Amino acid sequence: MANVLWLQGGACSGNTMSFLNAEEPTVIDLVTDFGVNILWHPSIGLEIGEQVTQLLRDIIAGTVVCDILVYEGSIIEGPHGTGTMNYFCDRPMKDWVKELAAVSGFVVAIGDCATWGGIPAVEPNPSESTGMQFLKKEKGGFLGAGYTSKGGLPVINIPGCPAHPDWITQILVAISTGRIGDVLLDEYHRPKTFFTDFVQTGCTNVVNFANKIDGGFGKRGNGCLFYEVGCRGPMTRASCNRILWNRHSSKTRANHPCLGCTEPGFPHNDLVKGSIFKTMKYLGVLPQEVPSGNSKLGYYMRAGFEKTMHALEVAVGVEKSHSDGSK
Amino acid sequence: MAIKKELNISPVGRVEGDLDVKVYMEDGVVTRAHTQAAMFRGFERIMAGKDPQAGLIVTPRICGICGGSHLYCASSALDTVWKTTLPPNALLLRAIGQATETIQSIPRWFYAIFATDMANKKFANKPLYDEVVRRFAAYVGTSFQQGVVASGRPVEVYAIFGGQWPHSSYMVPGGVMCAPTLKDVTRAHAIMNQFRKDWLESIWLGCSIERYMQIQSWDDLMAWSEENESQRNSDLGLFLRAGIEFGLHKFGQGVGKFIATGTYLHKDHYQKPTIEGRNAALISRSGFYDGKKYHEFDHLQIKEHVNHAWYQDVAAAHPWDEPLPTPLVSQPLEHSDFAGKYSWSKAPRYMDYAAEAGPLARVLMNANPDNLLPHQIYDPLFGDVMEKMGPNIFTRVLARMHEACRLYENIDEWLRQIDLNGEFYIKPEERDGKGFGATEAARGALAHWIEIENGVIKNYQVMAPTTWNVGPNDEKNNPGPIEAALEGTEIEDPHDPVEVGMVARSFDSCLVCTVHAHDQKTGKQLAKFKL
């Protein structure tokens, strides 16, 4: 049994929408079968106005126990550190969060905005947004590097834009059923169970990656998106191709480049010219970022060899099977 | 002597994002209301100076509920600047994305956001209350569970073509990223079919889609609901009876003027995207309805007012001519000065009028007798419903739910029209210029304006449906639609002002859009709308 309070700051509600798509378990299963008691949620909570304010006061006073504080959206500190660009229940949201985080059993940050600032924190960061315990790659964020909740853990970060519903529900179930001890966190406080493998693991284009065959938009299954259209699958840790989205799909399976949204710093390169759906390159040829676990030089040499070999094999008619697509 | 009272409601809840409302009451009746959007992110500022395609990634993330709609606008706006060529398949797949997102929202909004209020104790003395609670109560209601679970199905189709929902960027200038196969199309048909069988026909209608689509007038609808037990006891049948019994047709009127930017660009009529050619290519038409007659939609008639929004004052201007907003210091609801600035939402006006956006505006445009072209939707039902009932909470809910059947049929037809031998994307040439893209998000008119200079974004302006609905007063101190709709509302229990929530929720307010894109707060003298 766990009481959950869910709040949104500088949010788009995308993680809530994602959460409502959860299948195993569904949101309703969570409530009816898994002992999750939602104290309040901005989209599905029944209380309004003063009733919500009173609930927050009761939690802070200790008369209502908050086992899990789920936070979606950035912490808005603007203007000038006041947080008044985001009022909630007549106070800056950040002031509520500070006091609630001090009394909650566990704090779960959901989505990139809550984990490390996300899109609102892109330059010039007009709302002075930050994440709960990180700002981009830098530890600290709003609650500070040393924060731990009453349950003894730092903020549990479930990044993604949005986070996958199963990542959310499974962590809520782990806490409410007393199994949070089995959840290991990585250097960015992400549960390792979801964020150890790369997006490329399970990608249907992985053979084309190996053979260095370029892909592009509107084409059917005949090329890897890493080379020309900026796919970040080889350097992004997430289980998108193992736990599929909406039960069927993933970006890369739909010929959509991975945007790297589970890594701190998304949107990468701060959206500068030439960074959107284009692979940024040196000298127009060499990718500026190479797959994780490779040195740049090593990767360029291996890739150069593969590409040359592949071109030769195609020229002599040996290899073409993997690059064909079919309706 | 009249008993005067002020009520500050922060948050209103179950609207997406932070909506605060201040109402002034006299003898329990709202005499004036101010809506306040309470959060600012500054997306337009973030996009300035960035890659021209930044909107494809950033704007869907303005709003997790209408992400596909933002993507539809962002890609369309770039199409008009870059003068792309769009293959018919691309137009179909974009329309399917938009339609699956909207049909998803229908049961999700009805059960999770709206109908739980009908289970509020306020209605406990009504004969149908027990049945309403049995079906619509949050989490435990039988239909609540089935409806919320069913709502996830249509976006599985979105995910098949876009990779995931929410937050895909699969619509790009020149087409779409995907190139589906027969198995994708077949699976999409099957999923939609399950949605139809598991919820739309079995739970919502109690009849076939075909039977429901025969309804042409309010009298037809009433006759339908009494035709047999299955229809009478369906969730729609129950809503029709309980909605009237609970008096939902008696409050929440609004400004009585309606705006729709229209959507679903026909596959054969928009291969050369231009702003001028857009109206004629729409399947669900755009327009402005002033309460008496229809006007052809012209985006140049739109201006945004900021004098009651927490931005530096500039004269009301068309989005292309607006500077990037400069945020000012805001105040909490209790300390806001409603004669001055009081919301993060700007106030859009069409021909200087406040106008309601949303499904009711759309179905009104569909009832325009001028919709004579074969690809345009013509559906007279809501012309008649508005004459008989006027705009109110009940009519607004009915309009939204009415769209489900047609959307189902559209999606089915568009899936059949995909040509697996055809193109899905034609690589465009990048260029500078001004662009405009629009659609109908589930909750109403959505538009993007872009200006690209020297290969980067110079100006990006987003106008969301909730900006139309929840925006504050304008330069003439006329109220926005929700402010107007709250006036005259009777609040039974000031400690549980469920009526205020119901009015706001009938507009399906989505503050997250409004706030990022603009500001959202309203609070001024409300205009009166008389039925």
TrEMBL record, chain A:
Its cofactor is [4Fe-4S] cluster. It is found in: Cell envelope. It holds the Pfam family Oxidored_q6. [3Fe-4S] cluster binds at C240, C258, C261. GO terms for cellular component: [Ni-Fe] hydrogenase complex; cell envelope; ferredoxin hydrogenase complex; membrane. Residues 197-269 form the Cytochrome-c3 hydrogenase C-terminal domain. GO terms for biological process: anaerobic respiration. GO terms for molecular function: 3 iron, 4 sulfur cluster binding; 4 iron, 4 sulfur cluster binding; electron transfer activity; ferredoxin hydrogenase activity; metal ion binding. [4Fe-4S] cluster 1 binds at C12, C113, C161. Keywords: 3Fe-4S, 4Fe-4S, Iron, Iron-sulfur, Metal-binding, Oxidoreductase, Signal. Residues 12-175 form the NADH:ubiquinone oxidoreductase-like 20kDa subunit domain. Heterodimer of a large and a small subunit. Belongs to the [NiFe]/[NiFeSe] hydrogenase small subunit family. This is Hydrogenase. It comes from Arundinibacter roseus.
TrEMBL record, chain B:
GO terms for cellular component: cell envelope. Ni(2+) binds at C63, C66, C510. Keywords: Iron, Magnesium, Metal-binding, Nickel, Oxidoreductase. It is found in: Cell envelope. Its cofactor is Fe cation; Ni(2+). Belongs to the [NiFe]/[NiFeSe] hydrogenase large subunit family. It comes from the Bacteria. Mg(2+) binds at E44, V462, H516. PANTHER family: HYDROGENASE EXPRESSION_FORMATION PROTEIN HUPK, HYDROGENASE-2 LARGE CHAIN. One of its GO terms (molecular function) is ferredoxin hydrogenase activity. This is Cytochrome-c3 hydrogenase. SUPFAM superfamilies: HydB/Nqo4-like. Fe cation binds at C66, C513.
